[in-house]
Amino acid sequence: MSSIWVFEDVNLFGLLCPHKYKAYTQVHDFDAYKKQDYIYFEKDAANKVYLIEKGKVKIGYYNEDGKEVVKAILKRGELFGEKAILGDNIRDEFAQSLDNNTSICPVDVKTVHGLMRNNQTLSFKIYKFIGYKIKKLERRLQLLLFKDAKTRLLDFLDELCADYGYNCDVTGDDIILHPYTQKDIASLIGISRPTLNTLLNDLKEKKIIDFNRKEIRIYKGIV
What we know:
- This protein is of the alpha+beta class and 223 residues long.
- Helix content is 37%, strand content 23%.
- Helix 3 crosses helix 4.
- The longest helix has 27 residues.
- The protein is globular, with a radius of gyration of 18 Å.
- It comes from Winogradskyella immobilis.
């Protein structure tokens, strides 16, 4: 299995977290958050990037109608707030803890830039990672705008298979071991939880998939 945020076998948490570096160890702390605590809001100053040591974090924004739009739900080892690296000064999204024991590693943008200046390979990988993440987000937003609920779900299952699955490129059923709740999935594909339940049960009845709380099986040769 692989994670979408561990790009080309590079764990950004391991590379960027200051406690990994002797020069920063003594002055670096982790921040703790409870469920529903906000790590930052829209319009906040963007002067740090964040790495998740433990827990899950929701990234989103509110549209003109005041409706919450979920862009991503991130887990341990993943990076967020990365647009500050590119020069954004103000947040255009919020970040919210989804667990009661979320632990976050905050990294000052100046520290990140310093690490990148001293390591061209790291710099290249970070920029490539950011480009990959932006491309993935654009695809998801296009699905939200132009595709029906079932198509969004099937596309998301393909995405989950690439990120958390095994057997996805070989013969045999696709097995996906993922970190998301049904509420998380519904938020990510822009539908209600009852609608998601209906779609999942319909796919199950048609023997396209089977699922439980943490595993989804996609029967080969059907989707």
